[in-house]
Amino acid sequence: MGDAHHVGVVGLGVISRAYLDTLVGHPRVRVTAVADLDASRSAAVAAEVPGVEALTVEELLSSPDVDTVLNLTVPAAHAEIALGAIGHGKHVYGEKPLTAELADARAVIEAAAQAGVGVGCAPDTVLGTGIQTARAAVEAGAVGRPQFATAVMITPGHERWHPHPDFYYTAGGGPLLDMGPYYLASLIHLLGPVRAVAGASGRLRGERVIGSGPRAGERIPVEVDSHVSGVLEHVGGALTTITTSFDGVATTAAPIEVHGETGTLTVPDPNRFDGEVRLFELGATQWRTLPPSAGYVDGTRGVGLLDFVAADEQRAPRANGRLALHVLETMSALLRSSAEGRRIELSTSADPPVLVPLTTAEDWRGRDAHSPPSP
Fold first, then answer.
1. Hey, is 93 helix, strand or coil?
2. C-alpha angle 78-83-88 in degrees, rounded to nearest 5
3. Full set of structural domains in the chain with CATH
4. What single-letter DSSP state applies at residue 336?
5. Paired residues of 69 in beta bridges
6. Residue 369 has what pLDDT?
7. Backbone angles phi, psi at 284, to 5 degrees
8. DSSP H or E segment with residue 311
């Protein structure tokens, strides 16, 4: 199997715990260094995890003991950290979105290609049994030729529970940029890349009231549209109607539905790794639940990085940078279309990654196995 792949983590906020729980102790990777603008966070993680060194960001990016930089910083810092890692000859895997701005994302992909290093990006929830089982069903012809899909994400707003929700309502925020990567990555897995979009958006009110924490009752401004809808034209001919909103109370709509000539498939929440996939076939009288047939069983945050590390000349990483770039351009085009009132054609594309075979938790976690699964 060879030596473990060395990973350095930049950004030790809340999501870092989920990644560390997945990666620390895994036989195929070794977390060697951590860094955060708050040095006390780095020191706390280094004290907790044997063999981990607390470094400054620049020290980590240049460390000879780091092969891949795991970029868990805020979106506004994604480009700077990614380009810094690439400049030091490191692979980089980051949280979504790839970068905050489309031009920066293109620069990251171009720099990595020139340097001969890899770029990976969340979400990796789409590699779990929920989305992958749905994809396997579509590819097996369960709904016939796909005609159209719907994707729906509706909440009343994160300020009801988040003590510091300001960034959800400022530039770079909003429901599409916040949750869209999960839905769009799933739709590309299910129906292929997007060639053009048309969008419309609006906002329910100009300010929000924080509902919890030390700032409860404080009013914050809403500077971006809090409801974004649109139509995606997939290269294969299918159309997706997508709605992402912080302005609704609740919905009975499935997160994603795929409709074809001979059936309809309901797809679970793409922000989860698992979930129930149901099929209603033409002429049937009820829904049928499909057993898991593909995906990483009991997946957790970080499985995409493990998949990234395991990729080789025969298989590209599934949570890869080009897919993330295409997702970001799709979202950017929807927002631009909403502002300009016109259909916009995309300049990027991304082939759906290879389907994840049904892989037990023991296998992808490297337990009781002498080598990683071979998709």
1. strand
2. 130
3. 5-121 (3.40.50.720), 126-290 (3.30.360.10)
4. H
5. 8, 92
6. 36
7. -80, 170
8. none
Nearest Cα residue to 129 out of 269, 292, 18? 292
**Encoded amino acid at 61, one letter:** L
Write out the E strands in the chain: 5-10, 29-35, 53-54, 68-71, 91-94, 119-121, 146-154, 194-202, 207-209, 219-221, 227-234, 239-245, 256-260, 263-267, 277-281, 288-290, 344-345
Amino acid at 14: V
Residue 355 in contact with residue 295, Cβ under 8 Å? no
Mean pLDDT, range 54-70, rounded to an integer: 98
202-231 core/surface letters (b: 16 or more CB in 10 A; e: else): ebeeeebebbeeebeeeebebebbbbbbbb
pLDDT digits (tens, 9 = 90+) for 257-297: 999 999 999 999 999 999 999 999 999 999 999 999 999 99
Q: Which residue has the tokens 């607390």?
A: 54
Given a cut of 70, is residue 204 above it in pLDDT? Answer: yes
pTM above 0.85, yes or no: yes
The pLDDT, as a whole number, for residue 222 is 96
**Residue at 222: amino acid letter:** V
Say which residue the tokens 């970001």 belong to.
328
Residue type, 265: L
- Residue appearing with tokens 């870092």: 16
